[in-house]
Amino acid sequence: MDSKPWKEIVVDLVYWRDTQRSGVVFGASLFLLLSLSVCSIVSVCAYIALALLSVTISFRIYKGILQAVQKSEEGHPFK
Predict the structure, then answer these.
(1) How far apart are CA 76 and CA 42, in angstroms?
(2) What is the pLDDT of residue 10?
């Protein structure tokens, strides 16, 4: 991360100086606001947690298969 003060980072986001980072931040904010307009905050939090859990389990399965195919002893992928 940058060593700039947080106010300068926010100004950089608002003025789109780093378009990729600004796009991700504002896209995620827009998606969150649209989700909250349709569903309750409990449902949105539950769906976000479910998506995060799905991604971590998929990553764990992927690393396990990769380890089995390569016959390596890397250990646990989250260590």
Answers:
(1) 32
(2) 87
Instruction: List the domain boundaries for the chain.
Output: 38-70
Say if residues 52 and 66 touch (Cβ distance below 8 Å). Answer: no
pLDDT for 71 equals 74
Choose among 58, 55, 57, 60: nearest CA to 76.
Answer: 60
Residues 6 or more apart in contact with residue 78 via CB below 8 angstroms: 60
pTM check: above 0.85:
no
36, amino acid identity: L
Identity of residue 45: C
